[in-house]
Specification:
Layout lengths: L2 H12 L5 H8 L3 H9 L21 H11 L10 H10 L6 H14 L13 E13 L2 E11 L6 E6 L4 H15 L5 E4 L6 E4 L5 E3 L1 H10 L2 E4 L9 H14 L5 E2 L2 H15 L11 H8 L15 E6 L5 E4 L2 E4 L8 E6 L3 E6 L2 E7 L7 E2 L6 H6 L17 H13 L3 H9 L7 H13 L5 H5 L31 H9 L5
Parallel strand pairs: 1-4, 1-8, 4-7, 11-15
Antiparallel strand pairs: 1-2, 2-3, 5-6, 9-12, 10-11, 12-13, 13-14
Helix pairs in contact: 4-6, 5-6, 13-14, 13-15
Family: Belongs to the transposase IS21/IS408/IS1162 family.
Keywords: DNA recombination, DNA-binding, Transposition
GO molecular function: DNA binding
Length: about 500
Amino acid sequence: MDMDQWLEIRRRVLREGVSKRQILRETGMHWETLQKILTHPYPPGYQRRQRPPKPKIDPYRDRIAQILEADKLVHRKQRHTAKRIWERLQDEGFTGGYTIVKDAVRELKRTSQEVFMPLTQPPGEAQVDFGHALVKMNGVLRKICFFVMALPYSDAFFIRAYERECTETFWDGHVRAFAFFGGVPRRITYDNSKIAIARIIGPRLRELTEGFLQLVSHYLFRYHFCLVRRANEKGLVEGTVKYGRLNFLVPVPEVQDFEELNALLDQRCRADLQRRLRGQRQSKEKLLAEEQMRFLPLPFTAFEACRTRPGRVNSELLVRFDDNDYSVPMEYAYQDVVVKGDTDHVKICRFQDVIAVHRRCWGREQQIFDPLHYLPLLERKPHSLAFARPLAGWILPGCFEVLQRRMEWEMDQGRRQYVQVLRLLERYSLPQLTSAVQKALQHRIHTKDGIEQFLPGSQPWRQTTFPLGGGKHLRLVQIAQADVRQYGALLGCGGTR
């Protein structure tokens, strides 16, 4: 019966006074059907008063529930499937089919799920987590991780991509997130990451790592760690990781480097602040402005998000950091140094002086060379020039190869002279030296001193002297102008005899 018939019968009986017997004669319906129409404003639909009995599976429902409960204590990859439960029940005397077992398993899993208490989200709190995604970087599809800090009150969040999850990226993510939000949340919730936790002592007791304590000591926020396998305690950031992956990293971004990717993520995080939450009258940006009043102020001194390790330079002018070797200048061979590594660079220091800076290598067991560090050694051992590994990937303009061939052809020590030309890069940039070499080749000048005349800031050749055996100090000698009268006085005194 459709709704129009239902409405017509109710109107005739309840408003127009038509008798029930008249309706029964006209429609031929049952008395109980008419009573239902008059009782309910619209068809109530069919409703079971109790679950229909299932004599084959009902005796085994408790056994299935027992197996599913035991599965919660083992790894998810070794839990029972519905097919495996059916096979075990068959061994215990079950004679039914697989379908009813599968339906019973689905129903028990659905009804036994944990329920949660809705909580209020006070301003000034944050949650932190890492996620992973695929990115096409410089034409290569690769896996990256991204740091996420989310604020439950305003639902504002900050996302930044990194090479991998480690102490340096953990620090850097916090520093940049605090700057993005304009303050430090009073309380931050974490999972049980090894970056922050050295050992789990009890349900809520943790032995913290030195790196995490350094971060907390600088910003002085309170921290909270979730119970083991209870990610729902930071459910907002768990959802934000998924939201950021699906909305910011789908389709797979095609970028040149992390700088371009993070610029894209920062732009989208700021654009998301204009979004209004369901049930809120204000945008995220306005809620964040309210929440900033509850933040801790940023410290006057910035947190140095770099890991510091002592090291010693070996015989190949290399010092190890994070399973990679980085070069230093020759004069620091066999000396103790301090290595500082952040997300972008590795700085090698001797006391207070920075003696070398390299781009951070995120690979393993790699050697990162600066060719300039090995030029003084090559000057002493010029025959190793063709086999020097630090220079293997050093691409110089073609004029340098021409210069090397001419110098080796014209001079006995041409290779050493060529290394001395390369050492000019210690004082001049590569474009400046390239221009000087090109000019020297045009004038058929193939010496280091001749090339140096074409470099900016050098003295004109007429104002220089040729250095003989380390006599560069002769440049400072000043010869007075000759006086003819002195020669005449000498002749008057008989100086000719």
